[in-house]
Amino acid sequence: RKLTSISQPEPEPTGTGTSPAEPNNGAVTSLQTKELQTLHNLLKLLVQDLTTRVKKHRPGVQPADLEEVLKKGVDLLVIGRGMSEALQVPSATLDFVQQKGVEVRVLQTEKAVAEYNKLAVQGAKVGGVFHSTC
Fold first, then answer.
1. Starting at the edge strand that comes first in sequence, how are the strands of the sheet with 126-131 ordered?
2. Domain 3-131 superfamily per CATH
3. By CB atoms within 10 Å of each CB, which of 40, 50, 64, 65 scores lowest?
């Protein structure tokens, strides 16, 4: 059983980094590359940790499972319950997210991924936790 957690990185300022006035024409700087690799590694660790913690579909997604993605400052969290929606999302977990001022949407995983992608393209500060099996 796997949960995958993602959130949108903060937008990077344009420029080469040597002068705010110098545009870099969309080129990725070595600092940006390093930051992206660090983010990728952190997300891999988070997924491994969530996979370890979510052994069963019940009790399901717990508040502790969501803390890392909520720390990213998202305004909206999309939770995917699996392909057949077997993973539970207790009301206490939903209350925890909402008490943080974050809107939450719980969907079947394919629909959750589509919703996340739609919101991300629109520029929303969205995070996602997706159960990728059952």
1. 3-7, 126-131, 76-80, 103-107
2. MTH938-like (3.40.1230.10)
3. 40
